Amino acid sequence: MGRAIDGSALSWAQAEEVAPIIRKWATEQLLRVWHQQKNRYDPDPLWGDEVGFDKQTLKKIEYALVNLDRKNSRATMLLEQERVIRQWEARNCCTSDGATLQWEWATYVVETTPEAPYHDRATDLLEVETNMRQRRHLINRFLLPHQQAMSLCVFPRVGVEGTWTTPNQPNRLICPLPRYQLLAKNVQSRPQGRMRTYFPIYRDVLTSSPFHDDPPTGKGIPDHICLDELDIGTGCCSIQTTFQAANETEARWLYDQLIPLGHVLLAMTAATPIWKGYLVDTDIRWQRFGDLVDDRRPGEMDFLKANIEKPPRWTWNRTYLSREKPPMLEGSTPLQPMDKTIKSRLLEGGMDDALAEHFASILTRDPLLLTRADLDNLNDSNTRLFELLHGCVWHHVRFKPPLTDNGPGWCVEFRPMEVQLTDFENAAFAIFMYLLSRAITTFHLNFYLPFDMIGESWETAQKRNAAVEGRFWFRRSGWSSKYHRNDHSVKSMCKDSADHQDAEKECKLMTVDEIVNGEGNSGSFPGLLAMVWEYLDYTNVPSVEKAKLAPYLDLIQQRANSTNPTPASWMRQFVRQHEDYHRDSYVSEKVCYDMMEEISVLNKI
């Protein structure tokens, strides 16, 4: 949900005017809290799915509200977020529900939060699916029988004029809370103007050639779907996992090792093959969300173009944080001039170069959520200004420092995965990522890649059927770190020297199957799943509980080897086999309705 805002909101022009002083005090707030928390130690590795760890250390996942008009075979997004939440609040937020309901940007999405985070116990892992199902059922209590909460990444007919919401009220798409109203207003008021995204059309036998989807400006691109409204994308749903590390050092290492995994998990969870009622030739929502909130100014883009061959999109991170990283893998983009003042202050305040550069790249952003109250409290006694800037930069991995003594510790949030169609699938990926994070920190696994390889792999992940056909850069040797802290058999799973310093030789283009399930040859990369099973063995998880976890990890194995299709592949196949589909790329209301009904059935199995 993000932090609420109080008081009279500042317009974009007013926020621009005071931005330098906001950045200054945000920097001071960060330095103060960093000095207070840098030596903090939390031995319990708390975690959660799509987590927004706050003072109560909570976790959350988003559900889309779907209206199924069975009489007319028509499915639409239900704009009833406020009614659902208000009715739940009127019940005095019953603690027996085991969850809370929260606001989100789009009024057809409800965010859910269970009462407590998960712990490092197999019994907690086995509760994940049940908890997700419980949260979905809680929303359904406040809906009519023909209305349901579904885990949809993007509704297939989002943006089709006049036909995709119930009621049909375009002015009700943004959450009424001041935070979201101001965020939407300021995103639209920036110098960049309206953010357009173009997805290539999926060309079927009878797709018109050339295909045109011109926006009102007439600036469309042939054979592409054009998304030029803010509302098309604000309701994207994902499954995110956040992990509490023991201390800052462990959090920095985990952050670094999750960065090279983002494109792999994005491809494995691809769930967005349809936009505006048309099949497109991509499978993910990431490009749209990136374009929607990309706040880089023309001058910044010019600076980047002058310094590097291809300016990186906001979608992948620009720095590694661990002091132990090999020197040849620095690979961050050049800082623009206004970053340097902030970075210099952070260095003066005691931060090392890597951490200072990371936070400088965030604190130099434009403040999107400012109020008069913020200007009346310019000091370092709280973290409000830092949170406002940090909370509006959405990299695929987020490094989250502790903000209070009694709140969460050093956390890392993994953000790229698309929400899956069933509770079982969502639970499987949440469990897998938690276990992999524990294997990384326990065995000190080393997955460093040069940033240009990460960028190339992100481009691959955005292609159709990337989970099967794509090849991604990955560290197939040298992954058993020379800083390994445990004398454990995982070290012997690879015969290559951990001290090998030639990144080009250690890294290779690999399939998702090879990365997750292993290459299958003696002395080759054993696969991420093998590392997860090694961790379960190392921590002496009982055989009975490992057997109960096996179905979730089996799904990961099957998704990687393509025997279990991604939601995007399933949806694409459903459309192409439907009797009402005319091989012209168009997804009619009837096809969309039948798909929603089928997804409803999947969650009842």
How would you summarize what this structure contains?
By secondary structure, the chain is α+β, with helices and mostly antiparallel strands.
How would you describe this structure to a colleague?
This protein is of the alpha+beta class. It has two domains: 12-193 and 233-423, Creatine Kinase, Chain A, domain 2 (2-Layer Sandwich); 443-560, no CATH class. Helices cover 39% and strands 11% of the residues. It has helices spanning 12-37, 81-90, 122-125, 128-140, 178-189, 248-258, 262-268, 286-293, 298-307, 337-348, 353-363, 372-375, 384-390, 423-443, 451-461, 466-469, 503-506, 512-517, 528-538, 543-560, 567-577, 589-602, and strands at 47-49, 61-69, 74-78, 99-102, 109-114, 147-150, 165-166, 197-200, 224-227, 241-244, 274-275, 278-279, 397-400, 411-414, 472-475, 507-510. Strands 2, 3, 4, 5, 6 and 7 form a six-stranded mixed sheet that branches. A four-stranded antiparallel sheet has the order 1-10-14-13, with helices on one face. Helix 1 packs across helix 13 (384-390) and helix 4 packs antiparallel against helix 14. The longest helix is centred in the N-terminal third of the chain and has 26 residues, at 12-37. The chain is globular, with a radius of gyration of 23 Å.
